[in-house]
Amino acid sequence: MKIHNNYKIKTFKDLIAWKKAYQLCLDIFKASQRIPRSELFGLTSQIKRSALSVPSNIAEGYSRHSTADYIRFLRIAYSSLSELETQLLLVKDLNFINEKEANTLMTQQQEVQRIMFGLLRSLN
Question: How many domains does the chain divide into?
């Protein structure tokens, strides 16, 4: 059991990074419904995979029994966030989702990235 600021983390679901990444993933999946069907097997599929990769890798890394493995999975999640940022810029510039929604998603993505950076830095 890990303790952070008197807060007991019992499972990966207690991690702020995972909670924020999970919410971002939910919001990406909802927004992706507005991407044209012609992109179903292209951009839509890719943006959903990138978004899903973030909380999934945080969870998998946390469940490993070594700090080195945890860090490796967090780095994968962090990389997926950069991939997701590129895809969000693309759907915004192609007007597949409106600018306000795109900006909200990008703000969420950047927040998760900052949290992940801090978490990685604390583990190194």
Answer: 1
Report d(CA 43, CA 95) in Å as an integer: 13
- Considering only CA atoms, which of 23, 10, 13 is closest in space to residue 109? 23
Is residue 31, in this structure, part of any structural domain at all? yes
Q: Phi and psi of 8, rounded to 5°?
A: -85, 125
| The pLDDT value given to residue 1 | 39
Distance CA 70, CA 66 (A): 6
What is the DSSP secondary-structure string of 75-114? HHHHHHHHHHHHHHHHHHHTTSS-HHHHHHHHHHHHHHHH
Is the pLDDT at 3 greater than 70? The verdict is no
Over residues 69-86, the pLDDT tens digits come to 999 999 999 999 999 999
- Residue with token string 């969870």: 59
| CATH number of the structural domain spanning residue 89 | 1.20.1440.60
State the residue range of the domain holding 27.
16-123
pTM score of the predicted model: 0.88
